[in-house]
Design a protein that fits this description.
single chain, about 200 residues, globular, disordered C terminus, alpha/beta, 6 strands
Length: about 200
């Protein structure tokens, strides 16, 4: 068994996004979510965020069981929908899941509905802090993976450019720009005067 995306896309693929641990999986039924829930309980992550959905052709009771388990397994939940609602009205499955997560005891302010799949994945990462675990249940596997991998690359580059969370621009001295008439700026003249005085003193 491997978690490498190239070998098993959509099967427990792991990705680090600026210190937030992301697990991407194609889980779409209660049995698969139970396995993920067991993993979540065994991690040392301070918080867990689940990005969930159920295909539209599942029975209402199956969707409810899935939502109840998600509400018991995660500290925060983002509910999305598949592109193909499979016969359901848009938003219907999200509503069923939201009610089930509420009934599981998760407070309303920890339940978010973002129906678009890629936007929901980003929302889950947005909710997480470094060290937190984000579980993203996917349908369009490659699309979501590439979106999150690109984000991971961007945020890693930003962290390397600003190691203390502060722009390095402030550390670069301003150029000595001449005035339109060719004379130096007042600040430049002051530096030149100071340098001249030091040279005279040591001559």
């Amino acid at each position: 068994f491997t978690t490498d995306f190239a070998q098993t896309p959509g099967r427990f693929n792991l990705l680090d996004v600026a210190g937030r641990q992301v697990v991407m999986d194609y889980a779409h039924n209660v049995a698969a979510l139970e396995a993920i829930a067991d993993f979540v309980t065994r991690t040392a992550a301070p918080r867990s965020i689940g990005v969930i959905t159920v295909p539209g052709d599942r029975r209402d009771e199956d969707a409810r069981a899935f939502g109840l388990l998600a509400g018991q397994s995660f500290d925060e939940v983002v509910i999305r929908e598949d592109d193909n609602p499979r016969g359901r009205v848009r938003g219907e499955m999200a509503g069923l899941l939201r009610q089930a997560v509420l009934d599981a005891g998760l407070p309303a302010h920890r339940i978010h509905t973002v129906t678009d799949e890629v936007a929901a994945a980003h929302a889950g990462v947005d909710l997480a802090a470094p060290g937190d675990l984000v579980v993203v249940l996917v349908d369009r596997v490659t699309l979501v993976w590439e979106a999150l991998a690109q984000r991971a690359g961007r945020e890693t580059s930003q962290q390397m450019a600003t190691p203390n969370g502060k722009s390095n621009v402030d550390d670069v001295p301003a150029p000595q720009t001449p005035l339109p008439n060719g004379r130096a700026t007042p600040a430049a003249r002051a530096r030149e005067s100071s340098a001249s005085q030091k040279h005279s003193a040591t001559a």
